[in-house]
Amino acid sequence: MKMTWRWYGVGNDDITLDHIRQIPGVMGAVWSLHDKVAGEVWEMERIQEVADVLASKNFSPAVVESVNVHDDIKMGLPSRDHYIDIYIDTIRKLAKVGVKVICYNFMPVFDWTRTDLYKEHPDGSNALFYEKALVEGATPKSIVDRILEGAGEKTMPGWEPERLSHLEQLFEGYKDITEDVLFENLKYFLEKIIPVCEEEDVKMAIHPDDPPWPIFGLPRIIRSREHIQKFLSLVDSPYNGLTLCTGSLGPNKLNDIPSIIREFGSRIHFAHVRNVKVFENGDFIETSHRACDGDVDIIEVMKAYHDIGFEGYMRPDHGRHLWGEEKNCRPGYGLYDRAMGVMYLLGVWDTLERGVK
Ligand code: DNO
Ligand code: MN
């Protein structure tokens, strides 16, 4: 297992590579060109620039999260071929600097969705929170406004104000897209890109839907064991793989994550590990990584990875915001709780490595 850390880039992240270097065991920085909107060309110079900065601090550039997929591809519009060509161009360029895994998602309109970015825990820390009834009774626009207002000046991947300002058009475009159609459109995309990935030795790793249920009538197709199985059979190649995110599958307690890891382990290229506490009414809040703090049994998750001999990349996913850091950090991406998360995950892993059961 190779431990990594999501980093937003020079001038775009208060947490520097020098900070990250001091967290034990982190060998790679998970990066992206965050100013690029879906469908834009990634220039080789920009890619090389990041790779050089990472190399200068001894970090591997092997994982990119995300290269976002244009909505025309998800909707299956005629213009999708143009955007797929651009995607292929990006895969080839990324391969040149040693990228081995690309994390992406296929969620219509919204990436992760929450109702509060800074919900307080009883201990005074705060974290991302989802109030189910609020989303069910709300309009998409009111949730977008709520999130963007909560974020203030902070930019967040998946919540680009520019793209979301066309909300009505986006919803109009998705009105006939059922789960089956979305699967078809994903298959079309994969059939074009996976042969290129095989040539370039870059593995695609789809991120599950967060939360793991349809919202605002939009289909969501990567949210359970059955969905994952169907997804993997769309194109049966090791290059068509998964980012297994425990915090995204976790809010549905029917998802048995350790058994999903054991079943599909050889197709998991990137592991996102985080914990969530799920309430009886369906609300959930993000917690520390510790198993007993939430409903995802992180120790069993790590055992499953250890048992299958997982050699892919892993990172702590969202953490709580501690000691006032929410004033500056990107929601979910503070330093302290994620650093503690790394230590917790490595603590479990190192213990398993010693053969202690
Ligand atoms: C939440 C995050 C996601 C992820 C994107 C990848 O769990 O890991 O927002 O970055 O879905 O495309
Ligand atoms: Mn994740």
UniProtKB/TrEMBL annotation:
Record InterPro entries: Man_deHydtase, Xyl_isomerase-like_sf
Catalytic activities: D-mannonate = 2-dehydro-3-deoxy-D-gluconate + H2O
Cross-referenced Pfam families: UxuA
EC number: 4.2.1.8
Listed cofactors: Fe(2+); Mn(2+)
MF-aspect GO terms: ferrous iron binding; manganese ion binding; mannonate dehydratase activity
Single GO biological process annotation from the record: D-glucuronate catabolic process
UniProt keyword annotations, A-Z: Iron, Lyase, Manganese
UniProt family annotation: Belongs to the mannonate dehydratase family.
PANTHER family for this protein: MANNONATE DEHYDRATASE
Protein name, per record: Mannonate dehydratase
Organism the protein comes from: Petrocella atlantisensis
Record lineage: Bacteria, Bacillati, Bacillota, Clostridia, Lachnospirales
